[in-house]
Amino acid sequence: MLGLYIHIPFCSAICNYCNFNRGLFDAALKPPYVAALLTEIARAGDGEAADTIYFGGGTPSLLEPSDVAAIISACRQSWAVAPDAEVTLEANPETVTPERLAGFRAAGVNRLSVGVQSFRDEELRRLSRLHSVDTAVAAVGAARAAGFDNVSVDLMMWLPQQSVGEWLESVDALVALDPGHASMYLLEIYPNAPLRDAMARGRWSVAPDDDAAEMYVSGLERMDKAGYVQYEISNVARPGRESRHNLKYWTDGEWLGFGCGAHSTRGGVRWNNIAATGDYIAAVTVGGQVAGRRILSGAERVEEALFMGLRLASGLDVARVRGRYGIALWDEYGGDLEPFVDAGLLVYDGRSLRMTRAGMLLANDIMAVFIRSTVR
Amino acid sequence: MDQAHIRNFSIIAHIDHGKSTLADRFLEITGALQAREMEAQVLDAMDLERERGITIKAHPVRLNYTATSGEQYVLNLIDTPGHVDFSYEVTRSLAACEGALLLVDAAQGVEAQTLANAYLAVENNLEIIPVINKIDLPSAQPEECLRQIEDIIGLDSSGALLASAKEGTGVVEILEAVVARIHPPAGDREAPLKALIFDSWFDPYRGVVIVVRVIDGVLRTRAKIRLMATKQDFEVDALGVFSPKATPVDELSVGEVGFIVANIKVVADAKIGDTVTETARQPPAPFPGFKELKPMVFAGLYPVESHQYSELREALEKLRLNDASFFYEPETSAALGFGFRCGFLGLLHMEIVQERLEREYNMDLVTTAPGVLYRVTTTDGEVHEIDSPAKLPDAGRIAKLEEPVITSMILTPSEFVGPILKLCQDKRGVQKKLEYLKSDRVLITYELPFNEVVMDFYDRLKTISRGYASLDYHVTGYWESPLVKMDILVNAEPVDALSIIVHRDAAYDRGRALASKMRELIPRQMFEIAIQASIGNRVIARESVKALRKNVLAKCYGGDITRKRKLLEKQKEGKKRMKRVGRVEIPQEAFLAVLKVGTE
Q: How many domains does chain A have?
């Protein structure tokens, strides 16, 4: 089953830590962009079965419900989208009103992923977010009122000036809000992030590495207690509320991405659309290429399936890896993995290979074991 | 050219006192090179030489000079290496001359190498012409320099010349002085051939090129020659002079300087200091003073990637073709795998070889801490030379352990005498002389264990004297010393490449400092790492690197697996630059940490 990803590159303001593909909302640019999306979707359609649609960004909630409705219906025309498909929209708290939420719901969106990031106002200000804690709580309430029973909340830890205790306050507030799903990330401050300057000006710092590890582990422990199940390094859910779309990335699935900078992987071929919004619109309008295609080598596919699959809490299933890729996991990688097992970072019981929480914190070291070829 | 119109001379100077610039002016004035052909410092031909501003090889240049008297002269300028590692080459170059320009930077004054080389020139009975250079500098103090030449070196400064090689002032006067004051070469054209080799190198097209000064007799093409030290015979294919481009000639007669090409395959056959003669008519004795050059500083060189081992061997072979004073043999380290133990004349020589391997041969190297050649007498009475801590016999089998000693001359402004004496004492030195020279300069002579100087002596000397003290030294012998081998253990496994030989009294401090340095250099890994310093079975210092708890956990954006993959590839790349000992990844710098650990 295909997953469909729709990229919306617009934001009301650029967050000081973000390096995703995004730009400031431009009212003049939106109509041609949506038109280009519809054209690209119509051209790509082949009637195959699909069961997820995911609006990511940027800030997809800046679209009008009518735009969203048009895109979803274009998808339904191009593919056999299952009636019970998961349709996710990423939303920023300050962009949603009860009316707009009702509109998104009516357009066919059935899962809302709300970018809350923190339940402490001073932390939100340091991140240059436009919303407050009250706005976020209200947005989640309004989403429920509008008929969204599948709501996810994004939280970030290891924020500037944040202590372990302060992080846990946010976790507790999250639990109190009781969403079906939550993503919990460690903030990564990329080299040229404006946040770095802000930190220098404000003399803010982040807690030591060991505290960051503590935040991760104790935050997840609180979620365990509240009945959530961690199913991936950074994701927890009530049973049945796992993100079906994101699971495609972790289980060597197939997905098509639309819009500027969107990524697609299907049938062993991968492509990334032109990243710049204007260039993307121009290319679609003249019917030109929006992406260069690359055929993945056999080794590359297997390596990626393994390191992505290891992100799941259930880890890699030995029988499935043997069946699908013809690889005896432990024979092939056991020598390199054993030190991690000995260090209590990995568990191998003959049936599956999975990371412990301590291992998840060092996932990059473990996943690198599977990288044997270099792709340029 | 008749003997009376030949002048052979060299320029002796401390580093950066303007030797190469002055040589360039000579080339310009004598028309050896047009100004447009000049690249700054023509004589320092190797890139490395130009970059570091030092001369490594001794180059001769023939200058055709018309004196103000109207007479034509051939001036052979024999450039000399400026660093203590190459002092033997300096000695041999000076032996090929009748005179020397003693170049002193007008702002810096006399330095240790000026002094050391001036003494060598005096020993060789050379006519010395003092030249104060860089008089254009605002900070120039020519009178002070003249006083130092008198007070420190003990030379008559009345005939000293003032010049600015950079601006070209006083340069003609120097050439006139060379003609007027330096003696023409002595020697007998009819005597059996005697030519002194003062340089040789490997040319990929012509084989070994030997540079000689003819002492007696005449050298002709097609002549059958013999190298007296190695007792090997060759036939002369070509003779020539450097003007400065290689220019063929039919003969090199008494007093002349030039090169020989004679189908010699390796530089080791044409040793610097050896005498070239004719096989058929040999003199009763060679030119005196020949010495077999021995490497004094040893270190292990290992490829970062083990599959580069054979490439490294080839590169070393090629370097050795051109550098007979450098030595290597295969060595195996449990920590670093297959590599080579290499011997060098000194630390600079080592750095140069290392840099050439990395630059010209594209090698990625791990270098272990340099050590010196120890002499061990075992209980069975045998004497062994030990060039690596790994080769040191068990303590129970050692009857006597000796280390090489240097005699060092340190020249410093008097205000730094206190800290320098303390440094020398800390380094187990024995004071030989302390001379307060007039003009606020002090000459300190010390005997020091070479081992300590190899460690970090020079850097510290420069630091405590704010760069003002200068150093020159020669290895002068061995003394007995209570030395021990100290090992570093990482997670209980000894890392052979980190073992050092150290004085018993300094072992505790060094061990503690080294263990703590290793703790800084070894990155946190997924388990706790224990670092220990030990002598025999006794642990003398212990440190630990806490286990790493997290690395980056970035959000995987919109199915962009390629980005994630690149991150992991980079991570893997980073690991390659580390050496794995047991389960611990040790970064390359750690193997040199031994050097950087001060004893403060």
A: 2
> Is the same domain home to A48 and A114?
yes
- How many CA atoms are closer than 13 Å to the CA of A89, on its beta-carbon side? 30
φ/ψ bin of A292: left (φ > 0), alpha (ψ from -120 to 50), beta (otherwise) = beta
Instruction: Please give the residue of chain A at the shortest CA–CA distance from B561.
Output: A304
| Rounded Cα gap, residues A132 and A114, in angstroms | 13
Q: Is residue A124 part of a domain?
A: yes
Q: Among B547, B556, B562, whose Cβ lies nearest the Cβ of A249?
A: B556
State which of A234, A249, A264 marks the end of a domain.
A249
Q: How far apart are CA B540 and CA B484, in angstroms?
A: 13
Q: Does residue A269 lie in a domain region?
A: no
Please indicate whether, in this complex, the C-beta atoms of A363 and B583 are within 8 angstroms of each other.
no
pLDDT at residue B40 is higher than 50: no
Do A83 and A232 lie in one domain? The reply is yes
Contacts of A365 in chain B (CB under 8 A): 526, 551, 571
- Tell me the per-residue pLDDT of B274-294, one tens digit each, with 9 for 90 and over: 999 999 999 989 998 888 778
- Give Cα separations from B467 to A120, A191, B351, B562 (angstroms): 56, 37, 20, 52
Are residues A305 and A198 part of one domain?
Answer: no
User: In this structure, are A310 and A209 located in the same domain?
Assistant: no
Q: What is the pLDDT of residues B321-358, one digit of tens each?
A: 777 788 899 999 888 889 999 999 888 888 888 888 88
Per-residue model confidence (pLDDT) at position B57: 52
The enclosing domain of A141 has a CATH number of 3.20.20.70
- Looking at residue B364, its pLDDT comes to 84
| A77 shares its domain with A194 | yes
Residue B568 forms contact with A (CB below 8 Å): yes
pLDDT at B56: 45
- Cβ neighbours for B323, distance < 8 A, ≥ 6 positions apart: B267, B353
CA dist., res. B103 & res. B115, Å (int): 11
Query: How many angstroms separate the CA atoms of B572 and B583, rounded?
Result: 15
B545 pLDDT band, cuts 50/70/90, is very high
- The SS3 assignment for B74 reads strand
B565 touches chain A (CB under 8 A): yes
Q: Is the peptide bond before B244 cis (omega within 30 degrees of 0)?
A: yes
Q: Are residues A124 and A197 in the same domain?
A: yes
Joined tokens for residue B78 = 């024999």
**Do A219 and A346 share a domain, yes or no?**
no
Q: Which residues of B touch A265 (CB under 8 A)?
A: 559, 561
Q: Out of A101-110, A330-339, B14-23, pick the least confident.
A: B14-23
Q: Select from B247, B178, B175, B184 the least CA-distant residue to B30.
A: B175
Checking if the pLDDT of B55 tops 80, the result is no
**Residue B494: count of CB within 10 angstroms of its CB:** 16
How near does any CA of chain B get to the CA of A375, in Å? Answer: 8
Which positions 504-563 of B are in contact with A (Cβ < 8 Å)?
A: 526-527, 546-562
Tell me the ipTM for this assembly: 0.86
Q: What is the pLDDT of residues B509-544, one digit of tens each?
A: 889 988 998 998 898 988 899 999 999 889 999 999
pLDDT digits (tens, 9 = 90+) for B443-462: 999 999 998 888 778 888 98
Domain identity same for A304 and A209:
no
Residue A354 in any domain: the answer is: yes
CA-to-CA distance for B306 and B277, rounded, in angstroms? 47
| Last residue in a domain, options A210, A234, A249 | A249
Q: Is residue A47 a part of any domain in this protein?
A: yes
The CATH number of whichever domain residue A319 belongs to comes to 1.10.10.920
Q: Token pair of B482, please?
A: 């209570």
Range of the domain at A174: 2-249
Instruction: Give the distance from residue A29's alpha carbon to the nearest chain B alpha carbon, in angstroms.
Output: 22
Answer whether B376's CB lies under 8 Å from B398's CB.
Answer: yes
Mean residue pLDDT across chain B: 86
